[in-house]
Specification:
- The protein has eleven helices and eight strands.
- About 5% of the residues have low confidence.
- The longest helix has 15 residues.
- Strands 1, 2, 3, 4, 5, 6, 7 and 8 form an eight-stranded mixed sheet that branches.
- The protein has one domain: Vaccinia Virus protein VP39 (Rossmann fold).
- It is an alpha/beta fold.
- Helix 6 packs parallel to helix 9.
């Protein structure tokens, strides 16, 4: 699929996902299709112990807990990329406090509507949701102290452009904590080509080494993987795309799908050619 087709596919599917329950979304790959008959949260993490957690805003679409690693301080401005129904934004708000600011960005109108409805019900005046594309964010330069994102950048066709935009909107000395999905090894061709698996956070992912290289090449410093977890896809999901023999070959191949949470900083001083000048 080309970039515009990918974006339209993601937008349409996540418009449907916005209307599903957390249980439906958790039973599949990031909410893509409800195809699993197994009671199995493929990617999502448990938010129950997180301060500020709002169950109504949790659609079970994440693959980590970026706010737990984001070093958010009172008064910070936090921007959440792919904010969905507002789950990570509301947790970030609890950390940044009344004097802070949280901005969620999402390209799906249904998600923006759901998030704004949640914020209004909760009376959160310092949480804002903006409709926009992560490759061209509706945010000025040097605005964020912290950028977070949860299982979203893998859906963006041009990941290099996405990280350039993150660099642009971060203040000097600002940082990000991003949970995402990466690969070690190559997926079977049928999985790579399946649009549902792309929406499901699997076939659109980069190799872990390439993902980290883009971060460093963009100009970020002090990049480190804060958490890493191997993801196992249930057989009934794999069976939609692979034969029984292909499933067995895939399991024996050494290919790994990983959820990682990555941290990096924008340097204090501008380096020419790195996107901050």
């Amino acid at each position: 699929m080309n970039a515009s087709t990918i974006k339209q596919t993601v937008k349409e599917k996540y418009g449907e996902i916005a209307k599903q329950s957390k249980e439906q979304n958790e039973s599949s790959c990031c909410g893509a299709g409800g195809c699993s008959t197994v009671d199995y949260a493929v990617f999502s993490e448990n938010y129950n112990q997180q301060e500020g957690y709002v169950p109504d805003a949790d659609l079970g679409l994440g693959c980590g807990l970026p706010t737990a690693f984001a070093l958010i301080k009172k008064g910070d401005t936090v921007i959440d990329l792919g904010s969905g129904a507002g789950n990570d934004c509301f947790v970030a708000r609890a950390l940044t406090g009344e004097n802070g600011k949280v901005i969620g960005i999402d390209m799906t109108e249904a998600m923006i509507d759901k998030a704004r409805e949640n914020a209004e019900k909760l009376g959160f005046n310092n949480v804002e949701f903006r409709f926009g594309d992560i490759e061209t964010m509706p945010v000025g330069a040097d605005r964020a102290d912290v950028v977070i994102s949860n299982c979203v950048l893998n859906l963006v066709p041009d990941k290099r452009k996405a990280f350039q935009e993150i660099f642009r909107i971060l203040k000097p000395n600002g940082h990000f904590s991003i949970s995402d999905v990466v690969l070690v090894g190559n997926l079977p061709q049928n999985l790579q080509q399946a649009s549902e698996m792309y929406v499901g956070c699997v076939s659109g992912v980069l190799q872990k080494s390439d993902y980290l290289s883009i971060i460093n090449e963009t100009g970020f410093v002090n990049c480190k993987v804060q958490k890493e977890k191997l993801i196992t896809l249930p057989d009934d999901i794999l069976a939609d795309y692979l034969t029984p023999q292909q499933i067995q070959d895939y399991k024996n191949s050494g290919v790994g799908i990983y959820s990682i949470t990555v941290y990096a900083e924008k340097p204090k001083e501008c380096t020419h050619g790195k996107g901050c000048c």
